[in-house]
Amino acid sequence: MRTPLVLVMWIFLLGACSHKKESIEGNGEGLLILKGVRLVDGLGSPARPNVTIVVKDDRIRSILDPKEVLPFRAKVLELEGKTVMPALMSAHVHLGMTRGTEVGSKQITAENDMNQLYKLRKYGVGAVLSLGMDTDVIYKIRSDSERSDSTLPLVLTAGRGFGVPDGAPPSAMGIDQVYRPRTVNEARKQVRELLAKKPNVIKIWVDDFNGKMKKKMSPEIYKVLIAEAHAQKVRVAAHVYYLEDAKLLAKEGVDILAHSVRDQPVDLELISLMKTKNISYVPTLSVDESQFIFEKKHEWMETDFFREALDPGVLQWLQTSYQAKPSAVEELRMAQKNVMTLFKSGIVIGLGTDSGANLARIQGFSEHREMQLLVDAGLEPEEVIRIATVNNSNILGLSNDYAGVQVGMKANLIVLDADPIDDIRNTQKINMVFINGRSIERR
Question: Where in the chain is the domain with CATH 3.20.20.140?
Fold first, then answer.
């Protein structure tokens, strides 16, 4: 029997009203409400003016029209004129490797790792992938960061990572904790040892740092590492520089190219391989810029936002001991050209910075600088924010919990004093940061 139209409309309206009631029911006990904000959700959608975000525990419960009547016991923050966006995610950092002006694995302690995570969250970074060079202290920190009441950035790790004997990453930088297999059998044994610790990804250093090192990782070695990791459903991220290496790795099924191709333009062969095998690309433009930018003074170097990111002594080091690499200017231009080509070809681009690997790669600041460099490369601010948030959630396997500002997602949020869609530099105008729905101390 056909249902009368009036009854259908009544059922629809009743359902709509009950949904509306469900979103704000109760007296609001335990709710945090961010009222009247401009919302940049990280999904690439146009910004939504004057919305109200309701947070319960560590999750976004509702996104409401501001005319909704709010529960009387909720904690309401009147934020008219502010912009809310997702907390940043970085798919390439290093934790614990620097302390003051010292660099190397001797600096890695649980305390130093934690201090650097505190700094990253101050700068609105809500999740990081520490991409090799870690010691075993990282696994307890990772576990702590996964708690729903944690105010740490979520930590993912590649553990120690795999380098090359007499090659990358350079032992001269004090990097002595990575695996450096000499044979296929040694590589298989070492990767199985690492996989037993349940890393989130495996990191491999393949190139020769643009000719600085004596040799590169042989295909026989990285084939075994990739195969063993994939057998346990663990993804592999590769440090690359050359187009040819990127192609060879793509053919073997590497999952993430963790730096830009910088020796020549990417070509259709690489693009086709990356599309076919669903390979992500994390360009780390700020790595190349960091190799020349501090040779001259820039206005932003005088800002609190930059200087508060520096460890004691680093500003003086930049002013007196920093040595620029002039060829990095062209490397950055090539990297920016290549990221635009790949983006336009539909490759998934992520945000990472390699911050923390040396003194010039400044944690917290670099993540915001990377977004500016992506805009300079030709991307729109809303595209860059998606790259730094939702894209990274996909790359890191976190899209069930961290895919932007949506109902049901983690309440990892940045409150800004200005709209980053108008100017990407406005991501630096941080008013508040929330991790798991909790406002964190930014001093």
Answer: 87-403
CATH topology of domain 87-403: TIM Barrel (3.20.20)
Pick the CATH number of 5-85+426-439 from 2.30.40.10, 1.10.510.10, 3.80.10.10, 3.40.50.300: 2.30.40.10
Residues 81-101 pLDDT 10s: 999 999 999 999 999 999 999
Strands (E), 217-348: 235-239, 256-257, 280-281
Q: How far apart are CA 370 and CA 437, in angstroms?
A: 26
Which tens digit of pLDDT belongs to each residue from 5-48? 333 334 333 333 333 333 455 667 789 999 999 999 999 888 99
How far apart are alpha carbons 401 and 213 in whole angstroms? Answer: 40
CA–CA dist 256, 279 (Å, integer): 6
99 in helix, strand or coil? Answer: strand
> Cis peptide before 170, with omega less than 30 degrees from 0?
no
Give Cα 81 distance to the centre of its chain. 27
Instruction: Give dist(CA 246, CA 279) in Å, integer.
Output: 11
- Beta partners for residue 434, in sequence order: 413, 439
Torsion angle of C-alpha atoms 32, 38, 43, 44, degrees rounded to 10 = -170
CA–CA separation, 291 and 283 (whole Å): 15
Domain with CATH 2.30.40.10 in the chain: 5-85+426-439
Residue type, 313: G
Residue 158 CB: number of other CB atoms within 10 A? 28
Cα 15 from Cα 431, distance rounded (Å): 38
Euclidean distance between CA atoms 113 and 134, whole angstroms = 10
CA 304, 308, 314 angle in degrees (round to 5)? 120
Measured between alpha carbons, how far is 241 from 257 in angstroms, rounded to an integer?
10
